[in-house]
């Protein structure tokens, strides 16, 4: 890696020392992802110049002598997934260099970041840029665009983008996968009624609307929404249609019934499937039934299903084990838990413990010194850290009052580009407040809002309360100072 020495001398002395201190000191706390010195250097350069004018940031980047490429730009952008401004500043700087035209994956990442932070004016600017190079807009970018507009509840704009497929150089709207993508994101963000209306409106226009896959998208939408009445209605509509339910249809409906406590209905369908040679239960359906039985505290029956599925040739996967481990941890049957974990490690393949497994183990811990053992086991099995695991570790250290562990976890998470995100800041703000550290809580609040993150309603109420307390203390202190000066 080459870093321009002249750039280091030219950058402001105070900021540069801070950048280099972070750049060279990457001590291992938990365990690291792929480490890119250039991306780490740029991340810190942007961090310490976050509030500076764009021209000054670009000048500092120019002086580094770093030449952007897709891998580097993607790495830097991914480190700023919850901080759109430095991401956009860096993207614009990289795009200006004559030797580097950003590729599809880079545009997809920046559109995802901007859309996630509701910066749709900038998203439209990106689309205008990309329209000059139509080969840039592929199905992945199309899906990201639809997702981000729907996530922001801009349903009409999302549908409009779908109708503009040909303008973007993609296939026309008769593309079945594209239509299902639109329906999927509408359902995912709770616009199921609009999705079903769109589906029925096009039922006679698009032949693929008679495909069970398209019906499944709508059924899944109602089921995820938890609307049992509409789920049952659509299930009956499917049975009355020309479509035959497939394994995914059964899986979706059985899962919905178990979530609503209709275990009897789910078990009746499940047991009936074993008699149907054309559509036997798969591992997903078995996992769903196991989880539902465990939830109802029918653990012995769940363990029996676990044994039966192996005998019937339906091999368990990591989710099967995770369902059992989750509930066994809750009832503190830790000997059985670690017996299953060891079985997973021996079986390997699709059964190797994942981040979810280790999250359950972490949640079962009683003291901070136990954390490292789980994380080392996680690393030993080749399981990468995720933002969810980092946030869980933060929550645990906060609960135990281990400030040193908390600091190290935060620094490692930041260095690996897996946060901090809104959840991380929420944990820190509420945790510090509950432990009487109001100044620390307010510091994280200011840092969070400076990145354009939106507070959760409960955090907003808390900050209003803390601000009042801080003002009250300040007023009392000023009154004391006045009295002292009058003596």
Automatic annotation (TrEMBL):
Keyword Repeat: yes
Family: Belongs to the PPR family. P subfamily.
Keywords for the protein's UniProt record, in alphabetical order: Repeat
Matching Pfam families: PPR (PF01535), PPR_2 (PF13041)
PPR repeats mapped onto the chain: 211-245, 246-281, 282-316, 317-347, 386-420, 421-455
Superkingdom in the source lineage: Eukaryota
Organism per entry: Pisum sativum
Protein name in the entry: Pentatricopeptide repeat-containing protein
InterPro entries tied to this protein: PPR_P_subfamily, PPR_rpt, TPR-like_helical_dom_sf
């Amino acid at each position: 890696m080459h870093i321009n020495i002249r750039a280091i001398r030219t950058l402001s002395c105070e900021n540069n020392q801070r950048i280099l201190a972070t750049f060279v000191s990457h001590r291992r706390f938990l365990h690291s992802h792929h480490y890119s010195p250039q991306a780490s250097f740029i991340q810190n350069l942007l961090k310490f110049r976050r509030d500076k004018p764009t021209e000054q940031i670009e000048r500092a980047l120019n002086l580094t002598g770093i030449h952007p490429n897709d891998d580097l730009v993607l790495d830097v952008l991914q480190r700023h997934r919850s901080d759109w401004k430095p991401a956009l500043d860096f993207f614009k700087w990289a795009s200006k260099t004559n030797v580097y035209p950003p590729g599809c994956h880079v545009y997809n990442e920046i559109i995802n970041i901007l859309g996630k932070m509701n910066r749709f004016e900038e998203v439209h600017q990106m689309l205008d840029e990309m329209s000059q190079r139509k080969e840039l807009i592929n199905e992945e970018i199309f899906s990201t665009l639809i997702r981000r507009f729907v996530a922001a509840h801009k349903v009409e704009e999302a549908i409009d983008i779908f109708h503009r497929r040909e303008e973007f150089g993609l296939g026309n709207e008769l593309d079945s996968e594209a239509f299902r993508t639109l329906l999927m994101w509408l359902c995912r963000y709770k616009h199921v009624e609009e999705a079903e209306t769109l589906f029925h409106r096009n039922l006679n226009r698009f032949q693929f609307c008679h495909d069970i896959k398209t019906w499944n998208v709508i059924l899944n939408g109602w089921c995820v929404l938890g609307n049992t009445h509409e789920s049952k209605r659509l299930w009956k509509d499917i049975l009355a249609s020309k479509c035959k339910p497939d394994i995914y249809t059964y899986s979706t409906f059985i899962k919905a019934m178990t979530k609503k406590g209709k275990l009897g209905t789910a078990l009746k369908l499940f047991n009936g499937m074993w008699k149907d040679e054309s559509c036997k239960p798969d591992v997903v359906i078995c996992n769903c039934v196991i989880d539902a039985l465990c939830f109802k505290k029918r653990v012995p029956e769940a363990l029996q299903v676990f044994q039966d599925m192996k005998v019937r040739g339906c091999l368990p996967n990591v989710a099967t084990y995770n369902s059992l481990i989750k509930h066994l941890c809750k009832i503190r049957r830790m000997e059985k838990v670690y017996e299953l974990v060891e079985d997973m490690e021996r079986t390997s393949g699709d059964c190797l413990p994942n981040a979810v497994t280790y999250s359950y183990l972490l949640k079962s811990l009683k003291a901070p010194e136990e954390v490292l053992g789980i994380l080392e086991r996680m690393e030993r099995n080749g399981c990468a850290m995720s933002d969810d695991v980092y946030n869980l570790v933060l929550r645990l250290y906060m609960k135990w009052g281990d400030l040193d562990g908390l600091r190290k976890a935060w620094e490692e998470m930041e260095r690996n580009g897996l946060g901090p995100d809104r959840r991380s800041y929420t944990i820190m703000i509420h945790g510090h407040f509950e432990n009487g550290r109001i100044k620390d809580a307010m510091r994280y609040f200011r840092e969070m809002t400076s990145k354009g993150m939106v507070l959760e309603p409960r955090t907003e109420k808390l900050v209003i309360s803390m601000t009042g307390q801080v003002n009250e203390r300040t007023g009392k202190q000023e009154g004391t100072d006045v009295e002292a000066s009058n003596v």
